[in-house]
Amino acid sequence: MKNKNYFSGKSLWLYIPLWLVFVYLFFQILDFRADDSHNIILSGLYFVEFGVHEVSHVITSFLPPIMTAAAGSIGEITFTVLIVVAALKAKSYFAAIFGSLWVMLAMNSVGIYMADARAMQLPLVSFGENTKHDWHFVFGQLGWLNSDTVIGGTVRVLGDVIGAAAVLAGLYILTRIVMEKLIKT
Predict the structure, then answer these.
(1) 122: Cβ contacts below 8 Å, ≥ 6 apart
(2) Distances (CA, A) of 135 to 15, 102, 110, 183
(3) Helix, strand, coil % over all residues of the chain, rounded to 5
């Protein structure tokens, strides 16, 4: 009968360095700025997010403008959450940790964008001629423009909590692998 214990047979030589990479990425995401990034991994992930953001606008273009404007950022976060869900469903827990860090990056990106709604200082890139600041429009329509930094900061903090929980989950998995190996010897 096949052993159903996820932790048995896992190699520490692979998982410890991988977990250390996750810790490194966590701290890099805390300071990530798309316009000033020197981390090729995070820049690549952000590039994918940007594509998802823009495609989300196109897919929802038939909806009311406020929903279409918000859909870009919502799409970024939803895409990364779906990666985590797929990894968890496959019981690929280290992939879920990586996905959770990607959720953190997406929420960092969205939070920065939201917090910029009044200032509108971020350089915007768009495929259309009428480039507008999504969150300036959304928060303006909702009467929340004066709360942009609070809302954006809250989204970033929630992302940081998700990232920290993922890194701690990785540490838990490593501890379980070590305990499993100690029990066998």
Answers:
(1) 35, 112, 113, 116, 133
(2) 40, 21, 9, 54
(3) 75, 0, 25
- Confidence at residue 1, expressed as pLDDT on a 0 to 100 scale: 40
Looking up tokens 């047979």, which residue turns up? 9
**Residue 10: what pLDDT?**
67
Per-domain boundaries in the chain:
12-184
- Largest distance between two CA atoms of the chain: 66
Encode pLDDT of 120-155 as tens digits. 999 887 666 677 899 999 999 999 999 999 999 999
Q: Report the alpha-carbon distance of residue 155 to residue 161 in Å, rounded.
A: 10
pTM: 0.91
Residue 90: both structure tokens together? 């496959």
pLDDT digits (tens, 9 = 90+) for 28-56: 999 998 888 889 999 999 999 999 999 99
H/E element holding 142?
A: helix 134-142
CA-CA-CA-CA dihedral for 148, 151, 153, 158, to nearest 10: -160
